[in-house]
Design a protein that fits this description.
- By secondary structure, the protein is an alpha/beta fold.
- Helix content is 41%, strand content 24%.
- Helix 1 crosses helix 7 and helix 7 runs antiparallel to helix 8.
- The longest helix has 16 residues.
- The model has no long low-confidence stretch (mean pLDDT 95).
- Pfam families: POR.
């Protein structure tokens, strides 16, 4: 059976790296994996999404509306934007983190209030503060790997050697920090 995970965020949050690490781990475990990514205006703080589908045989890389088993939002407004892609019984992990879009920065719009409450009222939602967890580890840039850890636990993928995947795919001087971040994320779900 094919499983579908949608990772969404804002440019610069490491969404694509997290999905590439996830894909590498799934391939290492012997799954057929398809990944697609949409960068939008990622260099300018725009929406970024990555779709990872895995199983015995995956026919297409794209997740249809209502087809995601899991939605992982690196930024909470993105969770609402992409919620229609989640299956009714799907899981949401949302990072309680705000990055104002250009209309909000320029004063043409307000950041929506009550996002977490709305998500929690509609679907199974786990809220984490990956920024605070990353700060506790001493590097805010590992927020993405913390969020990757939540996927590993929620999708029951702990048997994969994630430490090896990280060592094979990140700079050697950052490998141990990222392994710690992954372990933190795995413990949050």
């Amino acid at each position: 059976m094919t499983k579908s995970i949608l990772l969404v965020g804002v440019g610069g949050q490491g969404t694509i790296l997290a999905s590439k690490l996830l894909t590498a781990g799934l391939l290492e475990a012997g799954y057929d994996v398809k990944m697609s990514e949409i960068h939008g205006m990622s260099q300018r703080g725009g929406s970024v999404s990555s779709q990872v589908r895995y199983g015995g045989k995956v026919e297409a890389p794209v997740i249809e509306v209502g087809g995601a088993d899991m939605l992982v939002a690196f930024e909470k407004m993105e969770a609402l934007r992409w919620l229609k892609y989640l299956k009714p019984e799907g899981k949401v992990v949302v990072n309680d983190f705000e990055i104002p879009s250009m209309p909000i920065i320029t004063g043409k719009a307000d950041y929506p209030a009550g996002i977490i409450e709305e998500l929690s009222g509609r679907v199974r939602t786990t809220v984490i503060d990956a920024a605070r967890q990353a700060e506790a580890l001493g590097n805010p840039k590992v927020m993405n790997v913390i969020l990757l850890g939540t996927i590993i636990t929620a999708m029951n993928l702990k048997a994969i050697d994630w430490a090896k995947i990280i060592r094979d795919n990140v700079k050697p001087q950052l490998a141990e920090l990222n392994i710690q971040a992954l372990e933190v994320g795995m413990s949050l779900v």
